[in-house]
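input
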Amino acid sequence: MALIEIRTFPDPILRKLAKPVKNVTDEILKLSEDMIETMRLSNGAGLAANQVGIPIRLITIEERLNKLENRHIVLINPVIVETDSEETAEEGCLSVPKFYEYIKRAKKVLARGINLKGETIELECEGQLARAIQHEIDHLNGVLFIDHLSPVKKNLFKKKYHKGRK
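output
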């Protein structure tokens, strides 16, 4: 396994629409292993492929959020099929380091995708796992969690973030 550089805001690749994965190849298996290692060593809850500079529809989710199976989740071409109710909770992002904000998202989701065996799977989840899946799928669509902020909070973010990077 290898660590991969995590791209940070305002890297333009974070705004690209990720392309679907056609087949689960050896390269996809290797990329998912490297993304899991990178996510774990960066203390992240999830990681999308475009965050590591590869604009394809692949996400990984940390095993601590998968309480039913207690293992990492790798979803290829993930989509949200259903949502139910909403909740607001604090989020951060490996691509927007040292910035946290409260974001409203669906409390429960039904997500569908392909696993590393090439099988279509569905995940019915809630809480942090549902939030992480929504956050990572947003990345695949070129959306960052800061895009969910009000215009006032977005302006504050830009001032704080850019000031912190100087």
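quick obs: The beta strands are 46-48, 58-61, 73-93, 96-114, 120-126.
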